[in-house]
Write a structure and sequence with these properties.
Helices cover 30% and strands 18% of the residues. The chain contains eleven helices and 15 strands.
Length: 392
């Protein structure tokens, strides 16, 4: 059975639920790891060798097939690279495209904040005019969708939905189909009176933004996120399309170890149907962490604990807000979908960005997110006074 998790922030994270001269590893044996096909890009920061060592050790210890990763100090790239275990089927490029997963949600929420400031829509308005089939749409606001506080059930626990994805992982999904599965269960709580991570809410937010603007989510992201940040590798997809070089993912979610690279990610609509490389995800993570694409007022609202603290398991120190998980001093996303396991993490002071994506070998091909383990270890090295300590 397919284990469908595009973000997993509720349970996994929150407890409830380049710059300068570059050399490659082949030019410096000290930075060359032992795994097959490794490609490491690093400047002269001495911490690069230590980070490479952490990733290299994790490949063997965690039984990983492949890893792509990047670390930035401020806007300066410390190290970026790819590593493959000895059982990998093909070498992985540092520029390999991954199925992005949950970081897409903070991009979409950023677009919502921009549109609010432009008076295209209001975060406080109810969404019934945009989504007439959404139960309680006359009480659910745009902000509730971004914070997943609407009470609308997640479609992923629906057994019939899981069976449908399991039967055909290449199928393309529409918003209406996903909403139908979600609303086969009653609301979890009255709108705004609880918190439960819901892919349905994020899919609904995307549908609202499209209806309000007359643009597709792909057009909105291209115009408002990808182009301003020069994220040339990033694409929004409505099929199983992925460019080259691709990060090849593998999973045993259907009971057999198989390649899942070409599975269709649209079941995680607006929480997963995007491809990008690590460098561009690092660029986004830094831009989000500094509020680069929104006003100071909008940025403060986006990270305001009051959006969810006190609801369900959310606290002032560990909460979900407009598409991002806040863990103390860190802003964290932890995507896990169809063999891709990832984490993006940003620390503001001192500025530090970590991006890691992994896929497992045959004996480690479930849904545990090993990328978080790798990121935690890198954070322990670089910021011992502010450890990431994200639950895996």
């Amino acid at each position: 059975m397919v284990a469908l998790v595009a973000a997993g922030l509720g349970a996994a994270l929150l407890g409830a639920c380049s710059d300068g001269d570059q050399t490659t590893a082949s030019e410096d044996p000290a930075t060359t790891a032992t795994a097959l096909g490794d490609q490491i890009i690093a400047g002269d920061d001495p911490r690069a060798d230590q980070i490479v060592g952490i990733v290299d050790e994790a490949v063997a210890e965690l039984d990983l097939q492949s890893v792509v990763f990047g670390v930035w100090d401020g806007d300066t790239e410390v190290v970026r690279g790819a590593m493959d275990g000895p059982g990998a089927f093909a070498p992985t490029s540092p520029d390999a495209l991954v199925r992005v997963g949950q970081p897409m949600e903070s991009m979409m929420a950023t677009v919502a904040l921009q549109l609010d400031e432009e008076d295209v829509l209001s975060l406080d308005q109810t969404v019934e005019s945009y989504l007439p089939d959404l139960v309680d749409g006359d009480q659910i606001t745009v902000a509730m969708l971004g914070n997943t506080t609407s009470g609308t059930p997640d479609f992923i626990p629906n057994e019939a939905f899981v069976a449908a994805v399991d039967a055909n992982p290449f199928r393309e999904w529409s918003y209406d189909e996903l909403l139908d599965y979600a609303q086969q269960s009653p609301p979890l709580f009255p709108p705004g009176e609880g918190w439960a991570y819901s892919h349905t809410d994020l899919a609904s937010l995307g549908a609202v933004l499209e209806a309000a603007t007359g643009q597709t989510m792909g057009e909105l992201l291209e115009e408002r996120i990808f182009d301003p940040l020069d994220m040339d590798s990033a694409t929004w997809v409505t099929s199983n399309e992925i460019g080259q070089p691709a990060f090849h993912a593998y999973t045993n979610e259907r009971g057999v170890y198989e390649e899942s690279t070409m599975w269709n990610p649209t079941w995680a609509l607006n929480s997963g149907n995007m491809n990008a490389n690590v460098a561009d995800l690092g660029r986004w993570t830094r831009a989000f962490g500094t509020g680069e694409l929104v006003s100071d007022e909008a940025f403060a609202l986006q990270l305001d604990p009051a959006n969810t603290a006190g609801l369900g398991p959310m606290t002032d120190e560990r909460y979900f807000s407009f598409g991002i998980g806040v863990l103390g001093d860190w802003l964290v996303a932890n995507p896990s979908l169809q063999g891709y396991r990832g984490v993006t993490a940003y620390l503001s002071d001192p500025s530090l960005t970590i991006v890691v994506y992994t896929t497992g070998n045959i004996d480690n091909a479930g849904t545990d997110n090993d990328a978080i383990t790798v990121a935690n270890r890198i954070a322990d090295l670089l910021s011992p006074d502010a450890p990431l300590d994200a639950p895996t």
